[in-house]
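Fold description:
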Amino acid sequence: MLKKISRALALIIVPFFGSLLIRLLYATNKIKFHAPQSIGDEPIIMACWHGELLMIPYAYTRYRKIPHVKLVISEHFDGNLIAKTLELFKFGTIRGSSTRGGARALIQSIKELKDGYDLGITPDGPKGPRHEVADGIIVMAQKANVKIVLVEIKPSSYWQFSSWDKFVIPKPFGTINYYISDLIDISDMKMQEARTLIKQGLEIHEI
C-alpha cells in the first residue's frame, strides 16, 4: 500500500518539477542549433539516444510549433514518469518497448505514422544495450515509408548518472548544442546497413 501511495505521489510531483527543470535548463543555457532549416511537412521519426532524452522536446518544437507527435515510451514505472512529463509539453505517447508490449507498440507506431503523426524514439531504450540500435526504428520507418531525423544533444557542462544509459543532465549557464541531421531515407536498406547508419549518425559528436 505504501509503495502504491508513493508511486501515485511521484506521478504527480516528478513530472511537474521535471518539466520545470527542462524549461529552466533551456532558458539558462546558450542554445546552438546545427540543423537544417526544414524537415518538411511529412511525418518523420525523430531519434536520439536514451541518455540524451531530457532536452529532446526543443529539438522537435524547432520544426513543429504545434506538437503532433507520439513518443514510444516503456511500460515500466520510469516510463510512466517520462510519459507524464512529456504530456506537459503536449506530446503524446505510445507505451511499449522491446522488453514489454513491443509488438503492440510497433503496430501502433506504424499506424500513427500512417495517420500523419510524427514519432519520437530512443533506438537503444528502454534498457539498452547503450548506443545499440534495436530493430524497431528500422521496421517502423520502412513499413510506414517515412524518413528519420537523428538528434544529438551535447551540453558543454553536465551531470552524468551511473545508469546503463549514462543519462545526461545539462548544468545551467553553459551551452547546449543540438545537432540535427537532414532527413535520412532507409527505405531500400537492409537491416544491418540501416542499423549502422543510424548508430554512426548518433555518434558523430561525442561529449
Q: What stands out?
A: The chain has a mean pLDDT of 93. The two ends are 42 Å apart (CA to CA).
